[in-house]
Structure formats: C-alpha cells, structure tokens
Amino acid sequence: NTFDAILCTEVLEHIPYPIETVKEFSRILKKNGILILTAPSNCLRHMDPFFFYTGFTDRFYDKILTENNFSIKKIEPVGDYYIWMSVEVARTSISNSLLAKLILFPTFLYYAMKRKTPVSVNSLCMGYHIVAIKN
C-alpha cells in the first residue's frame, strides 16, 4: 500500500533508526505525497531513562530528506535560544525557594522579552516543523 500523506509528530527522536524510517516514509508515500514532521532539536530530561536522538537540525533534515527523494517545501524552527532560556529559568525558579524565585525573576524577564534573531535560532531552537513532498 502507498499513502498520500504521512504525519510524524514529536516521535522521530524516539525511533531507534530515524534515517531508515525516513527511507520507509519515502517508500510508502505516493509521488507528490506529503510528509509532515515535527521533532525536537533540543531535548533534556524527557529522554530519561532511555536515550533518544537529539540534534535534528535543519541541515540534517535537508540532507536526509533530499537523499530520500523528498523536496522540502517548508522548514520552520520552533523557538530559539532566548525562549529556551526563559523556559529553563522558569523551571528552575518553580522548583526552588522564594528567594530563588525573586533572584531569577529578572533573568526570566530578560530572556522572555528578547526578540528572536537568526543567531538566536541558529544557536538553539526547540525543534522544527517540516513539510516535504515526495518526488
């Protein structure tokens, strides 16, 4: 059987052989079929107690999808370094004392109010949304 579309969301990093999975997506998708992927680029504790892949970058998707007969129509980063830092500062303050909350609050505001830049996205983003078409 072949399919017109495949949606793979927030699980690609959990698959033991992600490149082979993309090859299989290519095999089972019809010509002009749509592949929609979302996966994190930066993962912390959610991996525990198993190892899951991290570091799926835009260049990874460009290389692997192109090599497997896909044309990327859209690749959109999710978040950036500043957003990631504001989340981590908030997470740290929530799990600590009132004094820690008071000390960390200005840091949280600093990162939360920063504007996304190409450098902040290239430094660290939280993942990507990808739409690719089978050639």
TL;DR?
The protein has 135 residues and is an alpha+beta fold. Helices cover 42% and strands 27% of the residues.
Characterise this structure.
It is a single chain. This protein has 135 residues and is an alpha+beta fold. It is built from five helices and four strands, in the order βαβαβαααβ. The chain has helices at 18-28, 58-67, 81-94, 98-113, 118-123, and strands at residues 3-9, 29-40, 70-78, 127-134. α3 (81-94) runs antiparallel to α4. The longest helix is centred in the C-terminal third of the chain and has 16 residues, at 98-113. It is elongated and about 60 Å long. The mean pLDDT is 85.
List the helices and strands and how they pair.
Elements: E1 3-9, H1 18-28, E2 29-40, H2 58-67, E3 70-78, H3 81-94, H4 98-113, H5 118-123, E4 127-134
Parallel strand pairs: 1-2
Antiparallel strand pairs: 2-4, 3-4
Helix pairs in contact: 3-4
Features:
single chain, 135 residues, alpha+beta, 4-stranded mixed β-sheet, 4 strands, 42% helix, 27% strand
- Topology as H/E string? EHEHEHHHE
Strand element count: 4
Largest sheet: 4 strands, mixed
Backbone shape: elongated
Number of helical elements = 5
Backbone CA Rg: 18 Å
Helix/strand/pairing category: alpha+beta
Question: What topology, given as strand order, has the largest sheet?
Answer: 1-2-4-3
**Helical residues, percent:** 40-55%
